[in-house]
Amino acid sequence: MAFGREGGSLQGELPIATLTRLSDLLTDSAGCLAYRAVGRMGPGRRSQLLLEVDGVLALCCQRCLEAIEYRLDLHSLLEFVESDGDLTQEELEDDSRDFLPNQRELDVAALIEDEILLALPTAPRHDDCALPGSRQGSATVSPFSVLAGLHGKA
Hints:
4 helices, alpha+beta
């Protein structure tokens, strides 16, 4: 990939509304995410791409179904290879980078969306919230409280 060999750099803002594969996970698609992509050469003279994405996504809390602000601070190192057969077992087990097939052209917006989808929590939820329909703050009455009154009547 020429971008890595030449040490290219690309940065900008990506409107959240254009990330259509994320739309079902969001409560609001307003705003933008800031991104930066930097090309470089890695070990074995392979092109690498350092991808950084920052911003806030409005996800749906899986417990209360209300909006939850999810701070996205994504840093991914992607290395381009000719084929999976070029990778050693040690490289396959290395979690510090991901490998992609070498391509002439790369859709940066699609790559950013892929990386975001991989980084999102499986079931986003607030640290402290109630289930839908429950009244938060209402005192719960134990079904056994009536037994306390029977203690002295026997």
